Amino acid sequence: MALTTAEILNIAKLARLHVEESELADYQQDLSAILGFVEQMEQVDVTGVEPMAHPQDMVQSLREDVVTEGDQRERFQSIAPATANGLYLVPKVIE
């Protein structure tokens, strides 16, 4: 798919990018190549191919869910400017 100069300028405007006149031809060529590759990929027959979350068949190694630090709520609330019923009180920011 070949993009026109007007389309490149419109894409740049939508993306809030400034494109120099000297760069237009390069952007036009590069973006057209990318879209051409996408068109090529759309033609691949994927019938029977199951979608996958990751290209490698791996399992995320997870650590044990173990408490590594004790409860310090009282300590932290003792230095807070204002607390009530175990909660931090903050100024109202939305009216």
Descriptive notes:
The model has no long low-confidence stretch (mean pLDDT 91). The radius of gyration is 28 Å and the shape is flat. It has a two-stranded antiparallel ribbon. The longest helix is centred in the middle third of the chain and has 19 residues. The chain has 95 residues and is mainly alpha-helical.
| Average residue-wise pLDDT | 91
What percentage of amino acids are in beta strands?
A: under 5%
Helix content: 25-40%
Count of helix runs: 3
Query: Describe the biggest sheet?
Result: 2 strands, antiparallel
Walk across the major sheet and give the strand order.
Answer: 1-2
Ranges where pLDDT stays below 50 over 5 or more residues in a row are none
Number of strands: 2
Distance between the termini: 52 Å
Structural class: mainly alpha
Order of helices and strands: HHHEE
Rg result: 28 Å
Q: Which geometry do the CA atoms define? A: flat
Label this structure with key terms:
95 residues, mainly alpha, 3 helices, 37% helix
